[in-house]
Structure to design on (141 residues):
């Protein structure tokens, strides 16, 4: 009888220990939790979808915001440049700890990553101030 009680007690302790140790989540899940949803980011898709030849400068600004650089070409037509650079650093850790009466143990896991992205958009206007051409370049490293 005493042996059965000891086995049951040991089973309960081991089950509790397993539950505590499996409470850790993977670094990829931590990354998903800290990433912010983007609704207003300047992207290639936004340029492809919304910038059209014939748009006015005011319409372009409404879509993309103010340009980083405004210059003129050899014929004195305006050229707008948007140059966006972003760096994303993510580090995530998980800690697990379990104890069995006097014996304890812990487990730490972690992961980190850094990503840089650049997006350059060039908008060329005609003499009337309407978009005559646009180009973009994106890189990720």
């Amino acid at each position: 009888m005493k042996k059965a009680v000891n086995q049951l007690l040991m089973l309960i302790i081991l089950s509790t220990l397993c539950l505590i140790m499996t409470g850790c989540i993977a670094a990829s899940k931590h990354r998903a939790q800290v990433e912010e949803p983007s609704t207003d980011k300047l992207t290639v898709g936004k340029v492809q979808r919304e910038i059209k030849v014939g748009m006015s400068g005011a319409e372009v600004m409404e879509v993309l915001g103010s340009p980083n650089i405004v210059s003129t070409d050899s014929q004195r037509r305006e050229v707008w440049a948007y140059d966006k650079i972003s760096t994303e650093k993510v580090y995530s850790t998980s800690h697990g700890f379990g104890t069995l009466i006097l014996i304890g143990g812990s487990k730490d896991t972690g992961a980190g990553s850094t990503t840089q992205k650049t997006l350059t958009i060039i908008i060329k206007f005609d003499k009337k101030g309407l978009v005559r051409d646009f180009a973009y370049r994106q890189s990720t490293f």
About this structure: The radius of gyration is 28 Å. The chain has a mean pLDDT of 81.
